[in-house]
Structures are given as structure tokens and as C-alpha cells.
Amino acid sequence: MSDHLSQHSAFNLAAWNQLIHQDIPATLMLGIRLTQLTPHCAAAWAPLAQNINGHGTGFAGSIYTLGVVTGWTLISALAKTISSNCQVVAGEAHIHYRQPLSGNLVARAELNGAPCASWHSQWQSYRAAKQPLTIMLGTQDSLTAAEMTATFYIKKEELN
Questions:
Q1: Three-state SS for 40?
Q2: Do residues 34 and 21 lie in contact, with contact meaning Cβ atoms separated by under 8 Å?
């Protein structure tokens, strides 16, 4: 993750949009834009026109990418509030497509409770913390087209 995000700007949308476009070039090509970022929620949007398949609906790979980026951003922003030395990776993600998307793509990830407490206990055991997350995907009118379940790993690197 680029170093231009500090703990003080952990939930700055403009900074995160710049970071994902710089560090994950596919997000720029797909037109992915973060639209909300709080300690408990992240949302993102992408235009159907840049993510369309041969059937005139959302391309499955684009929907998947939108889901992973949304979840990664939420966990990464939360990790930034703890330490600027955290690295977040998606360890695994599964998606269930329920229906075609015929409008602009929208993703929303929400965290309940305070996951950071469990991260600290996992870090004390010298291992990466694990954070499961569900990301709902669809259109602005309905987030029921697809559901992604993902596990993100948060590694806190010690300063020398």
C-alpha cells in the first residue's frame, strides 16, 4: 500500500480513490470509484459501459474485482487507524451470482462490531490477523445480484 495515506486520513475518499487507481491499475480501466468510506462501511461504483459482457449485462470478472476492491479498502482503511505499518491482502473470496446486472455496478461492505480487538490478539501470536467480510453487489436500486464472502489478512509489520 502506498505511503501517502496517514492515520489521520484513513477514511479520506479522494486519497483512497487515488491510491486504488495508482496501486491497482485495473480499477482505473474498469472505472471503479469509491463512493463511501467509514470505519464500518465502504461502497464503490463502476459504470456498466466499461464492464459489460456480450449479453449486455455486467461482466462477472468486473463484478468480482469491484467486490474485492471494496472489501480490501474497508479493511485497509480500518488497519490504517491502528498502524501505518499494516499490509492487507485478500486471502480468498467466493462469489455467488444470483442475477444479471443490467445497470451501473455497486458494491457495499459492512463491518459489525469492533474487529480490531481480535486483530491485536492474533498479532500477539505473531501471525496475520484474519477478517471475514461479506460484500453485497448489485445496482443502485438493489444490492441482491451477487454476494461475495471474502477473508482478508492483516499483517502488522514491526518497525526496526
A1: coil
A2: no
- Dig out the grid coordinates for 91 from the structure: 486471502
Radius of gyration of the chain (CA): 16
The model carries a pTM of 0.91
Judged by DSSP in three states, 123 sits in helix
Give the domains, in start order, of the chain with CATH numbers.
Answer: 7-156 (3.10.129.10)
Nine-digit cell at 21? 487507481
Q: What residue spans of 39-99 are helical by DSSP H?
A: 60-82
pLDDT band of residue 127 (cuts 50, 70, 90) is confident
Quick: pLDDT tens for 21-77.
999 999 999 999 999 999 999 999 999 999 999 999 999 999 999 999 999 999 999
Residue 77: Cβ within 10 Å count? 24
